[in-house]
């Protein structure tokens, strides 16, 4: 391996390490407490080293949000490969989205701006539509026979996502006074079933 390749690899390794440490700090202390100084202290490098890889904290948050979207997309793609029936696929996508949110709350909060500004302000994030695109494909297949207009289909996709995101947000942001996660999961399951029946 040449010197140039080694430097590129070292730079990529440092960048990956910074992101991993930032996520670990967030899991321990929350998004609001994350700072460039804390990341530098945790990796035992000076602050300028962080700035060699990221322009500011917002750039780190943006990259982490993209990691979250990629993680979610891998699960949705797996559903798509394994499930042919669009109704069952839509249920699987809803289940995966729910599970992703509660297994990865730090990612979910960052990706969708729960309790904090959305990362990458001013940047267009096509990844934001990862879930919408997957449920959209399933819903379009279900409503094809009903001759729904594009506007009606778009409304159904938006409504479906809104219900799921709303339930997740309620649980995630009000965890101190809502402690029955089983009931909330049942609300989600029943809502998805009813929604699919009425498509």
TrEMBL record:
Q: Does the keyword DNA-binding apply?
A: yes
HTH tetR-type domain location, by residue? 12-72
The identity of this protein, by name, is: HTH tetR-type domain-containing protein
Q: Which domain of life is it from?
A: Bacteria
Organismal lineage: Bacteria, Pseudomonadati, Bacteroidota, Cytophagia, Cytophagales
Could you confirm whether the keyword DNA-binding appears in this record? Answer: yes
- InterPro entries recorded: Homeodomain-like_sf (IPR009057), HTH-type_Tx_Regulator (IPR050624), HTH_TetR (IPR001647), MT1864/Rv1816-like_C (IPR025996), Tet_transcr_reg_TetR-rel_C_sf (IPR036271)
Residue numbers of the DNA-binding region are 35-54
PANTHER family tied to this protein: ACREF/ENVCD OPERON REPRESSOR-RELATED (PTHR43479), HTH TETR-TYPE DOMAIN-CONTAINING PROTEIN (PTHR43479:SF20)
Keyword annotations: DNA-binding, Transcription, Transcription regulation
């Amino acid at each position: 391996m040449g010197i140039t390749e080694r430097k590129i690899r070292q730079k990529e390794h440092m960048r990956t390490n910074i992101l991993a440490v930032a996520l670990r700090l967030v899991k321990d202390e929350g998004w609001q407490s994350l700072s460039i100084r804390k990341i530098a202290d945790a990796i035992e490098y000076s602050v300028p080293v962080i700035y060699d890889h990221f322009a500011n904290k917002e750039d780190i948050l943006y990259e982490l949000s993209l990691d979250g979207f990629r993680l979610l997309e891998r699960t949705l793609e797996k559903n798509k490969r394994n499930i042919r029936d669009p109704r069952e696929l839509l249920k699987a996508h809803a289940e995966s989205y729910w599970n992703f949110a509660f297994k990865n709350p730090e990612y979910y909060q960052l990706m969708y701006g729960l309790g904090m500004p959305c990362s990458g302000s001013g940047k267009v994030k096509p990844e934001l539509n990862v879930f919408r695109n997957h449920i959209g494909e399933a819903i379009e297949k279900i409503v094809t026979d009903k001759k729904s207009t594009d506007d009606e289909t778009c409304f159904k996709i938006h409504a479906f996502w809104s219900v799921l995101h709303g339930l997740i947000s309620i649980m995630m942001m009000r965890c101190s006074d809502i402690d029955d996660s089983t009931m909330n999961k049942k609300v989600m399951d029943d809502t998805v079933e009813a929604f699919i029946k009425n498509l």
